[in-house]
Amino acid sequence: MAEPKLSEVEYIKANSDYLRGTLAKSLENPLTGALFPEDTHLIKFHGAYQQTDRDLDSERKAQKLEPLYSLMIRIRVPGGVATPAQWLRMDKLADQYGNGTLKLTTRQAVQLHGIRKRHLKATIQGFNEVFLDSLAGCGDVNRNVMCSPNPNESRVHEAVYQVSKAISDTFTPHTTAYYEVFMDGQSVDKSQPIQTQKSATGTDEEPVYGKTYLPRKFKIALAVPPYNDTDIFANDIGLIAIEQNGELLGFNVAAGGGLGMTFGMPETFPRLADILGFVPASEVLLVCEAIITTQRDHGNRENRKFSRLKYTVERMGLDAFKAEVEQRAGIRFAEPLPYRFTHSGDPLGWVQTHDGHYNLGLFIEGGRIQDNPGFPLKTTLKTLALVHDGDFRLTGNQNLVIGNISPQKRPIVEAILDKYGILEATYRQTALRQNSIACVALNTCTLAFAEAERYLPSLIDKIDTIVRAYRLEQTAINIRMTGCPNGCGRPYLGEIAFIGRSPGYYNMYLGAAHNGERLNKLYKEMLDEAGILREIEPVLADFARNRQHAETFGDFVIRQGYVKATTHGTNFHD
Ligand code: SRM
Ligand code: SF4
Prior knowledge:
Elements: H1 8-14, H2 23-28, H3 37-45, E1 48-52, H4 57-62, E2 69-75, E3 81-82, H5 84-96, E4 102-104, E5 110-115, H6 120-128, E6 146-147, H7 155-170, H8 177-182, E7 220-223, E8 237-244, E9 247-255, E10 274-280, H9 284-298, H10 309-316, H11 318-329, E11 349-352, E12 358-362, E13 368-369, E14 371-372, E15 375-376, H12 377-387, E16 391-394, E17 400-405, H13 410-419, H14 422-428, H15 431-434, E18 436-438, H16 456-469, E19 479-482, E20 496-502, E21 505-510, E22 521-527, H17 529-546, H18 553-559
Parallel strand pairs: 6-7, 7-8, 18-19, 19-20
Antiparallel strand pairs: 1-2, 2-5, 3-16, 4-5, 4-13, 8-9, 9-10, 11-12, 12-17, 14-15, 16-17, 20-21, 21-22
The chain binds siroheme and iron/sulfur cluster (SF4).
């Protein structure tokens, strides 16, 4: 029988000499702002994507110019914790080489957009100086590891954060190509030799990934109940921390989550991770490695639409998958231990930590840090970073926590934020807006069918009018919008969600669980703004009148029969 044909990307990886390809030549080529086509795949492993300014595409085409190419670069911030010096450097690089904004992502990373090819090395070297890198920001490897962004809230949070860092370090690719191509052979810490696993023949080695890495992207998140603020069930691996007497005991391990799907292809679907069982903290790295290598060896390398772990689990069957993981890790999963998630949003405002310091959660609309007239968010945060001696924590909901503020510094932080109403802006919002997520979409995302980040705020202005009319302004409802069905704003976990079909038109989904434990379901198709408002108003009115005590919106729409509950990814389309 003929061998199945591998996808094009598999050949590109195999022939890339551990992700080098012709990237060095691509960057030097002065004739175009673009990279050579094969390098556009490889550069993702180094944390960058080639994009165009889509607002200008047709105008430039008419002028017979090539599209305005630039690169988006995703800076990896494991667990989402950055120092003030790192914040200041990202802020500066955004102005110097990017489009003057920072984008906080749904995976606790920071993206810079609009970087010209000729400035890419200087940008990477710029954040390298403060010990940040973008290696494995994207690509067929383990990505930024997410962790509840309040590590100082209790000793368990801190221990979980340390586990997330260990996972991130263990599964970062070992290739030296990143340092060779972008940093003239320097390591992240210039005083240290490059962390390398070169073999006796002097070539790179990837002990976990091998030469062709994984079949597709791979994501890991950790959460500390009752917060599911990293949406762990949307991940290839989700780790639920279990504590006993204030100490970290271990994790319930979930596997096989992933959200992307393609319109018109019901065999693609969002899927939540299944819990395999409990392991003590000492075994968690072994188990992660066993899951990653099972995916490496059993994942689909022919068709990238079916390459994610969720399809591997479906194909193998959950029991066979679990047995394979146990055998590879040399462990047995115990029965999962009890836990309870209450919500997937962020605690906003002041939170006292276990050591008497404070964390301050700020709502950042669409995760975009920029200066707007009357609302100089970027400049204010820069001013704060100059005096703040704690840290900056990125949340999985695109928000920002000013972390580890000492009681002495609290009035100074308050004064800086008060000057331009930045903190008040968080408190002023309806709970609906505070629980909103929009993916980037236009004008940079090459895959967007419709607006998201640039549109959701004005749509919420209108929905807020309804929310206020029915006295629901204090009721937290997760609302999410994306410009296509890939799921970057985790729309399938929105109690209300809009997914772009074409410019100005969205499918509307209802009924995800408020705590991230149930997917939603399609309610109406191809709605424009008038259609959205027409459809949402009676449902919100009904909710205001007929909800039971403390019932969440997602549960209510199912009880009232607006949509059927999705109980598994495989019945998402039913
Ligand atoms: Fe995503 C591709 C932005 C989180 C599923 N995602 C993209 C690209 C790179 C478009 C592309 O391939 O050319 C987008 C770049 C837009 C831009 O201009 O910046 C993009 N994804 C984002 C971010 C920035 C959205 C945001 O507004 O915050 C998030 C960056 C996270 C990070 O820091 O690493 C982001 N993407 C997600 C998530 C949510 C999550 O991981 O919790 C998902 C759904 C979960 C999942 O992976 O299943 C997600 N992105 C995708 C997919 C669909 C994957 C699939 O299995 O089908 C694509 C397309 C692809 O991979 O082919 C994609
Ligand atoms: Fe782009 Fe689609 Fe992801 Fe939004 S969901 S950032 S439109 S790929």
